[in-house]
Amino acid sequence: MSEQVHNRLAMVRAERKVSRQSLAEAVGVHYQTIGYIERGQYNPSLDLALKISRFFGLPVEALFSLEPFRPLTDEVYGRNQP
């Protein structure tokens, strides 16, 4: 069984006001695939993760991780530093 890939895709997509449909068209997948990725029901291939990252102009590790992401407020404001 493969490990779950955590992501911030829904948050970034909403922040940038990008629909699932337009992101899906830009990276060559069905819009439902974007929803499955956002809900953690599907791990993107490396190719797809890189295409999504390129679409948003972000490093892949800003969107996807094998470890759960810390809350963004913790990262921005420095709370709960390990």
Using brief descriptors, characterize the structure shown.
82 residues, mainly alpha, two-stranded antiparallel sheet, 2 strands, 54% helix
Secondary-structure element series: EHHHHHEH
Query: Which residues form runs of ≥5 with pLDDT under 50?
Result: none
Strand elements, count: 2
The total of helices stands at 6
Give the class from helix and strand content and strand pairing.
mainly alpha
β-sheet strand percentage? under 5%
Biggest pleated-sheet summary: 2 strands, antiparallel
What proportion of the residues is helical, as a percent range?
40-55%
What's the pLDDT, averaged over the residues? 91
Instruction: Supply Rg.
Output: 13 Å
Description:
With 82 residues, the chain is mainly alpha-helical. It contains 6 helices and 2 strands. Helices cover 54% and strands 5% of the residues. The chain starts with 5 loop residues before the first strand and ends in a 5-residue tail after the last helix. Strands 1-2 form a two-stranded antiparallel sheet. The mean pLDDT is 91.
